[in-house]
Amino acid sequence: MAVLMLAPRRGPALGPLLRPLCSWADGLLHSMAQPGTWDRFYTQQDTAGTPSHFNWFFDYTAISGLLLPALQGCNPPEPNPSPIRVLEVGCGTSDLSLGLYRESPHPVHISCVDVSPVAIRSLRRLVEEVPPPRHPLSQLHLHVADATDLEGGDFGDGSFHLVLDKGTCDSLLRCAQGPGQARQLVAECLRVLCPGGSLLQFSDEDPDARVPFLEQAGGPGVTVQEVGHIGGMCYYVYTLCRPALETPTTGALN
């Protein structure tokens, strides 16, 4: 299982694992916003004929202790809880959603989207090898879709309780034409969240840079939690919530 660390935006260097993986790595940093880039990238990963997970930053096990409690907070406790709807944007061939699907004690309906059909095809083959989910009502669905235009992929307003972004926003921010698309990505993630839902962005970018960007793109109320140091890099999870619907008080109705 390969793991790639992207250099922070303030520095142009690529992660040390990228060069042996891609003969065209020098051009990757400047073309991350182009869909064809990822078709070529994942085609190269699959040249051996046997697909394997490729994780940006870290794998599922590094943050499972954070994600599973986050899932629990999506629905109030009840005897027969309804499925928690989760969206992962720019999934690639990550094991993030597969880990949630496999280990969540709560029923989850997870949708993984990526702009690259090559990545989705490889991930589909990996899903076939995943053991049954811990909860029998859990489901996992894969979609070829542009995360900056989720409406085009038939994802309506308020469709999900939780949206996960591990490195997708970072890849857009690291190329010249990407910041506008990154803002559109955040807007789409918030649009598909139900009231009270949360967007979780995992990144190696310092809070002094990412928080102002998220506040500009999605509004105030961004919270930051340090994930930890992994492979010599410090990672953070940035959370942005869609406001819950206000319940009118008795005084307001009179």
Q: Quick check: average pLDDT?
A: 84
Strand order of the largest sheet: 5-4-3-6-7-9-8
Rough outline? globular
User: Got a strand count?
Assistant: 9
Structural class by secondary-structure content: alpha/beta
Radius of gyration: 18 Å
- Write down the oligomeric state: single chain
What is the tally of helical segments? 10
The biggest beta sheet is recorded as: 7 strands, mixed
The secondary-structure element order is EHHHEHEHEHEEHHEHEEH
**Separation of the first and last Cα atoms:** 61 Å
Helicity level, as a percent range?
25-40%
Could you list the spans in which at least 5 consecutive residues all have pLDDT below 50? 3-24, 248-254
Residues in β-strands, percent: 15-25%
Description:
- The relative contact order is 0.15.
- This protein has helices spanning 18-21, 25-28, 35-45, 64-72, 96-103, 117-127, 168-173, 178-191, 207-218, 250-253; strands at 2-4, 54-56, 84-89, 108-114, 139-144, 160-166, 193-203, 223-230, 233-241.
- Residues 3-24 and 248-254 have low confidence and may be disordered.
- It has ten helices and nine strands.
- By secondary structure, it is α/β, with parallel strands linked by helices.
- Helix 3 crosses helix 6 (117-127) and helix 8 packs across helix 9 (207-218).
- It is globular.
- The protein is 33% helix and 24% strand.
- Its main location: mitochondrion.
- It holds the Pfam family Methyltransf_25.
- Belongs to the methyltransferase superfamily.
